[in-house]
Design brief:
6-stranded mixed beta sheet, 15 helices, 7-stranded mixed beta sheet, GTPase activity, magnesium, potassium, binds magnesium ion, Four Helix Bundle (Hemerythrin (Met), subunit A), binds guanosine-5'-triphosphate, Rossmann fold, binds potassium ion, 451 residues, GTP binding, Gyrase A, domain 2, metal ion binding, alpha/beta
Length: 451
């Protein structure tokens, strides 16, 4: 990070642009002095709002009239002295207040993420909680909001720190056994450490094998709409999106590019991709569209296979071949099905098929509930364990698990200890806790070696 001579930072905490109220935030040792300078009054009582007029510190010109809050460190978001100014939310007001504050001693504009970074450095947040703040701000659906709040509350940090603590304990016991073999240490230290590692490894593997639900909840579940040309894929996409996102026409081969829409299905985020109709013998542009459609079908978490009810019971084989157990099958244009076909419960490639009509609305409510249920099972876990939410965490956990399983095969206690040290470090990378002092603490607390 860059080194600055001025160390009190200021930034607009609310969104840029026009609004009723904007919030400016200052953090650092010069925050209170800057507030006093631009208001000409002393700081209010900590954590009580007070009304103040804001003036330019050099020419004394009136800039705005608003509220101020004073949070003396360490009981603040960053752990430093923090001041908040609530002013009117217009460009001229916020720009002039920022300039006025930066004209005060020690104050400069903050870098991106610098408030949270300071909070992390001052032990107010671990890295997973800092990431959760970003996720909460980005959350578009209720389920994403809940996951971010849970993580911000420290649910993930507690899980990973708990594991790290267990690991440090096993390591400390092992270290003591290696370093002080003559001491009066329990003989079952080695087997105890192994049992601990095995159970930790099991818990970690269970957490990793969660179908990526936490990561998907953050990003949105990828759902691909596939099917033969003219089955009504774009019509269905538009109906789910409640807007004309994709072109609909009676011409087969209308959709070429993948058209993405973001949906909130019962609180769960979905990225729905409308794709080109699957068929042979088309022009090069359409062929590229079909290649993209197939690629989407392959990477999607869930597929909606749309068949054309107007040609029922003939089924497009390209699409049938892509139906698997993560496919919701629908037969569209139910309004065109012969009356006798309505009585049966059709199946396609062993999967139940729902008859719908985008035009008449027939079967659409049932389809939406079934789709939401499929999305929910893929994003919601069983039980109360917090979900793994980021690829960054996953890769550190995979490193950790690799080290743990290697440690169990280690031919010597020293090598086993080295693997455990690497495993501890990998876990520490997730929350940002990487010190070895904890290790010494455990050794000296549990063994009192050498008094
Ligand atoms: N009768 C009837 N026609 C429908 C229904 N849904 C869509 N259509 C019509 O079917 C035609 C094709 O619809 P699209 O949504 O463009 O179909 P598509 O599957 O996206 O087609 P491509 O992009 O060409 O692969 C249009 O004329 C729609 O109006 C329905 O439920 N009933
Ligand atoms: K079409
Ligand atoms: Mg289309």
């Amino acid at each position: 990070m860059m080194q600055y001579s001025r160390n009190t930072i200021v930034a607009l905490a609310s969104a840029a642009g026009r609004g009723g109220v904007a919030v400016l935030r200052l953090s650092g040792a010069g925050a209170a002095a800057a507030l006093e300078k631009i208001t000409g009054k002393s700081c209010p009582a900590p954590r009580y709002a007070a009304r103040r007029r804001f003036y330019h510190p050099q020419d004394g010109g009136l800039l705005d009239d608003g509220l101020v809050l004073w949070f003396p460190g360490p009981a603040s978001f960053t752990g430093e002295d923090v001041v908040e100014l609530h002013c009117h939310g217009g460009r001229a007001v916020t720009d002039s207040l920022l300039a006025a504050l930066c004209a005060c001693d020690d104050v400069r504009p903050a870098d991106a993420g610098e408030f949270s970074r300071r909070a992390f450095h001052n032990g107010k947040l671990d890295l997973t909680q800092a990431e959760a703040i970003a996720d909460l701000v980005d959350a578009e659906t209720l389920a994403q909001q809940r996951q971010a709040l849970r993580q911000m509350d420290g649910a993930l940090a507690r899980l990973y720190d708990g594991w790290r603590h267990d690991l440090i304990r096993s390591l400390a016991h092992l270290e003591a056994y290696i370093d002080f073999p003559d001491e009066d240490l329990p003989a079952e230290v080695d087997e105890g450490a192994r049992a601990g590692i095995r159970s930790l490894l099991q818990a970690m593997r269970g957490h990793l094998a969660d179908g990526h639900r936490g990561e998907r909840l953050r990003d949105g579940l990828a759902v691909a709409v596939i099917g033969p040309p003219n089955a009504g894929k774009s019509s269905l996409t538009n109906s789910l999106a409640r807007r004309e996102a994709a072109i609909v026409s009676a011409t087969a081969g209308t959709t070429r590019d993948v058209v993405e829409v973001h949906l909130d299905l019962g609180g769960y985020p979905v990225i729905l991709a409308d794709t080109a109709g699957l068929r042979e013998g088309s022009d090069p542009i359409e062929a590229e569209g079909i290649r993209r459609a197939r690629a989407r079908a392959e990477t999607a978490d869930l597929k909606i296979a749309v068949f054309d009810g107007a040609s029922w019971p003939a089924l497009d084989t390209h699409t049938v071949n892509l139906v698997d157990d993560s496919t919701v099958v629908v037969i569209n244009k139910g309004d065109c099905l012969p009356a006798d076909q309505h009585q049966t419960c059709p199946t396609v490639a062993g999967r139940p098929a729902q008859v719908i009509s985008v035009h008449s609305g027939q079967g659409m409510d049932a389809f939406l509930s079934a789709l939401t249920a499929e999305v929910q099972t893929r994003l919601e876990g069983q039980g109360s364990a917090p979900a793994l939410t980021r690829a960054r965490h996953r890769s550190a956990l995979e490193d950790c698990a690799d080290c743990l399983s290697r440690s169990l095969q280690a031919p010597a206690l020293e090598l086993m200890a080295e693997d455990l040290r690497l495993a501890t470090r990998a876990l520490g990378r997730i929350t940002g806790r990487v010190d070895v002092e904890d290790l010494l603490d455990v050794i000296f607390r549990d063994f009192c070696i050498g008094k």
